[in-house]
Prior knowledge:
Elements: E1 4-5, H1 15-26, H2 46-59, E2 66-71, H3 74-86, E3 90-95, H4 98-107, E4 112-118, E5 139-143, E6 145-146, E7 151-152, E8 163-166, E9 181-187, E10 198-203, H5 220-225, H6 235-251, H7 253-274, E11 278-280, E12 291-296, H8 304-313, E13 316-317, E14 328-331, H9 338-354
Parallel strand pairs: 1-13, 3-4, 3-5, 5-8, 8-9
Antiparallel strand pairs: 2-10, 6-7, 9-10, 11-12, 12-14
Helix pairs in contact: 1-6, 2-6, 3-4, 6-7, 7-9
Amino acid sequence: MKKHNFNAGPSILPREVIEQTAQAVLDFNGSGLSVLEISHRAKDFQPVVDEAVALFKELLNIPEGYSVLFLGGGASLEFCMIPYNFLEKKAAYLNTGVWAKKAMKEAKGFGEVVEVASSAEATYTYIPKDYEVPADADYFHITTNNTIYGTELKEDLDVNVPMIADMSSDIFSRPIDVSKYVCIYGGAQKNLAPAGVTFVIIKNDALGKVSRYIPTMLNYQTHIDGGSMFNTPPVLPIYTALQTLRWIKAQGGVKEMERRAIEKADMLYAEIDRNKMFVGTAAKEDRSRMNICFVMAPEYKELEAEFMKFATEKGMVGIKGHRSVGGFRASCYNAMPKESVQALIDCMQEFEKLH
């Protein structure tokens, strides 16, 4: 039976990307060696990093004066690296969920942190609007897509201070104006590669403005100077990221990824809104295209476990909601085919008929 992978992360990758990676694990570039055992300094591997950086810049239309880094540690390490490198006195954070809150917690160790707005009181079911960002903040930090709660900022904000964004789960799903940010970062295990590599896009001249000592490994300048090779980078996930970037380009680029994301999300939300058994949890104007969250309608609540079992038997994988909110979550990242979304819709309709 065909499996439909709705996992929130690590998550679905394009089938051909998995096959190309599998081939390189057996034999990298006809070298007779596995990509798992070659030196990151090997002449064969440098072009992998160079092309991945070039495709990042091309696909996201990154202006001159920015660097693209491939690091370890996940977005969770960036939560601390960001304030280490950018926070001199005060930083502003928009609290839209668990990950935004974690980022904020780390920053508090480096200076004053202002929470400009929060949707915590409504279990993060919406993105706050109409807030003031302090003009004297060193930066304003946002989390563009909130995987647990299914909310998403779908356009670049205009603020009067340097902006930093965690785009772990929606990078490459829509065009972005990189010039509006001094830093964009994310764990790659949702829309780009397997877990183990973190991407960071950084405006070079935004660095070097804090007075504190920054440990070598936590200093972005170290990695810019070393071309992501200061220490051994996560070789395999970088190789897979390159294959995914090539795939995105071959499919028609970020604009096409956005078109597909809108199409898939519209299909599934339309069914959630039509089907009397299910209710969407996020405010309609803030609904995420990447993570579609829904629950059983109150009068069908006792059927939740039954629907979960029914959907699993139909090949749906990973649709259980995050343990902190329950219900269901269908993650529809770039590699998710429209057919899988349709299969979930069919499954919901079939369950409705049974009840």
